[in-house]
Amino acid sequence: MTKNVGSLDKTIRLVLGIALAAWAFLGMGLASTMSYIALAVGVILIATALMNFCPLFRILGISTNKSQL
């Protein structure tokens, strides 16, 4: 896996991922479908930020990692 997520992109993913996960747990509760969707998206964002790799970016040929440009 070649790193394709840059530092700014990583920070944005972490902040949004944590916010979505927190909203799913605290704001809506786990009873609604929107909470499950928000939690899933939040976990995916956090995981891609921590791995510095986004499979969708690879498919689309995108890289925000400046060392790879």
What does this structure look like?
The chain is built from 3 helices and no strands. The protein is mainly α and 69 residues long. It has one domain. The longest helix is centred in the first third of the chain and has 21 residues. The protein is elongated and about 40 Å long. 19% of the residues are buried. The mean pLDDT is 89.
State the gist of this model.
The chain has 69 residues and is mainly alpha-helical. The protein is built from 3 helices and no strands. The protein has helices at 7-27, 33-51, 55-60.
Highlighted features:
69 residues, mainly alpha, elongated
Topology (elements, then pairings):
Layout lengths: L6 H21 L5 H19 L3 H6 L9
Strand content: under 5%
Q: What form results from the Cα inertia axes?
A: elongated
Low-confidence stretches: none
SS-based class:
mainly alpha
Task: Give the rounded overall mean pLDDT.
Answer: 89
Bin the helical content: 55-70%
Query: How many helices?
Result: 3
In total, how many beta strands? 0
**Structurally, how many domains make up the residues?**
1
Radius of gyration: 13 Å
Q: Compute the separation of the termini in Å.
A: 16 Å
Order of helices and strands: HHH
The major pleated sheet works out as: none
